[in-house]
Amino acid sequence: MSEFEYSKWDGSQEFLPQSADKLFDQLSEYILQYGDDVLRNLEDVDDDDLPEVIELIQKDGLIERDDEGKWRVTPKGIRRIQDKSLSELFQTFNRDGIGRHETQQKGEGTVSLEDTRPYVYGDSLANIDMHETLKNAYIRQGGGVPIRLSHEDYVVHETEYQTRCATVVLIDMSGSMGRYGKYYTTKKVAIALQAMVRAQYPQDSIQMIGFYTFASPMTERQLLNSAPKPVSMYDSRVHLRFDLDKPQGRVPQHFTNIQAGLRLARSHLLRQSAANKQIIVITDGEPTAHLEGREVVLIYPPAEKTAAHTLNEVRRCAGAGIRVSSYALIEDYFYIGLVNFVQEMARVSNGVAAYCSVDDLGKFVFESFIGGRHTRRYTQ
Question: In terms of CB atoms within 10 Å, which end of the chain has fewer, N or C?
Fold first, then answer.
């Protein structure tokens, strides 16, 4: 039985046009699922024939044409997608579990405590307790008005010390991530994480890196427009080697090079001044590509050689004081090899390993980002 009933509109029914925000939210869902192919399709439409809904979104400042005349999401649109992704993610798990990177230390920070102390030169004026300050001055001068403040009257709130953290999220862009909504969910979690860092941890830095046959950093817009690399070969066994400087032929992009992602993430984090540094790896497969000098090697089915090169890079990250958390997206028993591999990554780095379904990914990643910055732990 159909869940809907249709009838001819006779003019008496109330017509409620959708807002530009609502229309953009629908468009952004397609972009999250299919990447910038959605925006490229809009380029085939002449401006004279541009649908009214697109004009509405454009006038609201959510999409625009770039210098080459191509459609793109504006910074305002990107912020809306990030905030909406974060809001939707919070609805799937206990929001009380999400908080700031707090420590037991007191110091300069943004969270005011009930405790107060005398003002010391250099304290932020934003933390002054005006009630206590005025009371001190009133008592000191023996009452009366006007109240005249002196240096010794000032009192400031204690603040919790919030550590700065530099985070890199490594996102698997291999061909298999296009199945079961894995890449869509991963991208949405990463976008939500960007929103939370911007709103709650402005002192932190976060960088997204996509890994496939190679690895590359992604801006906010590139992440939004991204999609898994299409599978370009279907051989049951593959053993190929390509010179990075002079590749012979077209290099397949859909393999899984976790080593390249870790290497790029480590290089990025070593340039950051934050006291705490972490890498969060999200993948759905064992590594099938690795680097040897100036060559990339593609091997399928997954080989011990590739695993060894990847684990060596994990050790380098751990040796540099970088915490590594690995999350394996598991759909069925076929992925038992992946479970074993991420557990081995946790063992060699004394880090975190977990396997989960797509539905649980957000909770795992956010808990790792928030709660695991000071204590290294190993989970299964």
Answer: N
